[in-house]
Amino acid sequence: MTSANQIRMPAGGASASPAGPHKAGRASARRADNRRKWYEIIGLTTPAVLIYVMFVLVPMGFAVYYSLFRWRGVGPPTEFVGLRNYTLAFQDPIFLDALRNNAIIVFGSLLIQGPIALGVALLLNRRFRGRAVFRLLVFVPYVLAEVTVGIMWKLLLTGGGTVDALLRSLGLGSLVQAWLADLDLVIWTLLAVLTWKYVGFAIILLLAGLSNVPDELTEAAAIDGASWWQIQRHVTIPLLGPTIRIWMFLSMIGSLQIFDMIWVTSVPAVRSLGASATMATYMVDNGFFARLWGYGNAVAVILFVISFVAALLFQRFLLRRDIDGAITGRAK
Amino acid sequence: MATKQRRSAVLALLMTGVLVVAGCSGGDEEAAPQGELYKDPVTLTWWHNAPQDGPGKTYWEKVAKDFSALHPTVKIEIEAIETNQLQRTRIPAALLSNDPPDIFMTWGGGEMTEQVEADYLKDVTDQVKTEVASIGSAAEIWQVKGKQYGLPYRMGVEGLWYNKDMFAQVGIAAPPTTFEELNAAVAKLKAINVVPIAVGAGDKWPAAHWWYNMALRACSVDTLKKASTDKVFDDPCFVKAGQDLKAFIDTKPFQDNFIATPGQNDPTSANGMLANGKAAMELMGDWNRGTLDTVATDKAKLASFLGWFPVPAITGSPGDPKAALGGGDGFSCSKNAPAECVEFLKYLLSPEVQQGYAETGTGLPVVKGTDAAVKDPALKSILESTSSASYVQLWLDTAYGSTVGTAMNDAVVAIFAGNGTPEKVVSAMKAAASK
């Protein structure tokens, strides 16, 4: 950047010379200003840029590089195989199962958590005794560490565990299932646990959004004779749009990358049969445990590309109005 | 404006590049000259797999302290890491980054062969001749092409751990020696409403070990040896192993929903079921004595009923009935570890240290003359079986390396889950070998 300034300085000086010393003085003051501004920008952004490059861009570059090798993580990668690892991944039925499971979690989370969160948020936005306590309780599962929640539910749902005992004592013994062992059921069990944990986050976000809905609007609607339901339907929810879209975005990215909860709650055998694997657990199972490091990197790159494309599409089409110009590049 | 921004971004990138390069070049000055033993102070880093509080962890701390007391120039820094993490991520990453611990765990077989080929391990053949002679044939598992790259400190064959009280209750006089007798025992045990055999199929390998034993019975020793060295699985005996296993699973000897049962470490695991009187048998290695203790609610009761017998023979199978599956834990020194590392390795295999290890009851010692320190009757019978085995086949997943091993275990688990076939196990192993 200093070099850029140096190149421009003589040019600026030359053009300023006919106008006399006055103008030149002001120009040089502006140049000094300009230079200081750039020192500040460089000084303040360098640490962040350095960290970003070293811990985000460089590892990503390495992942792409390693994904092109048949490499077992012993010695440097030497056996270049091109895109073979990518072809192998899409031929593996377990990887396709993992993709399907990720899709179930993405759409399941949106479709189940969205309506619940909206309903609870609207309720909690009304004034009643104990509202603060309710808000706190709703948020507790989200605050717990994911691993803690995973182990807790694993113990609750284990064969003959608390959930089964509870169902039997309520006379609902016929509903008892092999929650974590039934290969067709386990992904839905995990979806339920994920919903339990993350719905609180959606509710808190929506509550924050609701507090931004001006009282004047709802009051005006009430004076015009709108019922509570009509106010929610025609005033509050439309104004919540940006918040809902941001939550959908965060939920989608989180669901695509989900790892901890699945890893902790579901045992290796059930994962490796494809019943509960996600792209991230598949990556670790193959990369580290089967020691297919090149292949594991290829899966990591696939996971990245899917998340990245999903994020871009979402921002392009759904978040466009909310973050105009920031990503879409069309500043107004 | 736009160009300027881009230029400054490029500059920032370049600066980072310089830093990265500078950072990398810092790591190259290792390979300290190996001077006289115990002359200069050295620090040995030691990674082992006993992170849980207990006799294992305490004992290694004592061993390190004792060695430093004998040789004050040597300081030992221990890092205890859970086995999976240690084996799958920490050791490979440390070896790749050229900053490995000086002495760390190795398990022999396919993985070790690769580590040797990548020149990660110190050849200790000439320094450990006495120890190898004392350990005997088990030391061969830590050899690659005739050279010794590490030593085991624990070794044993696997078999069925069982509840003697339950066997007595249903009138089984002597432990089964054939699968017919085992099937009969299973039928009798079902009648008193206990789980005949607990299997931690959730962790995959405890289920896979059943297939390994079927293969051991179905295949000749030569076929098994060839499979380990050449990764060739064309012999029909590997398919027969799966068929025998399928027939056995069909007799329903295991607990319900075994596909989600973990192997060890918690009360709901297969270990917990045997330790707490819910199951009658469990197939497991010699380390099980220690892991059963950690999940037992009544350790004294466990000690009173626990017994052990070798995996039964399959009548009419070509496999050697006296052959057994086994494996162990060993330590190796990294390529550039100081010479003191080898001395410490030798110290770990000295009769005193091995005797002390045996007394902790966490596993079986490997050095001759330490047998007397093994007091537990179950462990004693393993020791006898190990020494009388005609051939000890290393765990197949270790012998074939993680890639083939994982594919094999996954395919066996599929048989357990009811959606795999004997043929698919073999085809998965072949596919993995080329992956």
TrEMBL record, chain A:
Topology class, membrane: Multi-pass membrane protein
InterPro entries registered for this protein in UniProt: ABC_transporter_permease, MetI-like, MetI-like_sf
Main location group: membrane
UniProt-listed PROSITE patterns: ABC_TM1 (PS50928)
A Pfam cross-reference name: BPD_transp_1
Keywords: Cell membrane, Membrane, Transmembrane, Transmembrane helix, Transport
Domain of life: Bacteria
Annotated region (Disordered), positions in chain: 1-31
Localization annotation: Cell membrane
GO biological process, one term: transmembrane transport
Cellular component terms per the entry's GO annotation: plasma membrane
Segments of skewed composition (Low complexity): 10-21
Domain ABC transmembrane type-1 intervals: 99-314
Transmembrane spans: 41-68, 103-124, 136-156, 185-208, 246-264, 292-314
Record family assignment: Belongs to the binding-protein-dependent transport system permease family.
Name of the protein in question: Sugar ABC transporter permease
Organism: Micromonospora inaquosa
Automatic annotation (TrEMBL), chain B:
InterPro entries: Bact_solute-bd_prot1 (IPR050490), SBP (IPR006059)
Keyword Isomerase in annotation: no
PANTHER family (UniProt xref): ARABINOSE-BINDING PROTEIN-RELATED (PTHR43649), BLR3389 PROTEIN (PTHR43649:SF14)
Protein species of origin: Micromonospora inaquosa
Record keywords, A-Z: Signal
Protein name as annotated: ABC transporter substrate-binding protein
Family matches, as SUPFAM superfamilies: Periplasmic binding protein-like II (SSF53850)
Leader sequence segment: 1-22
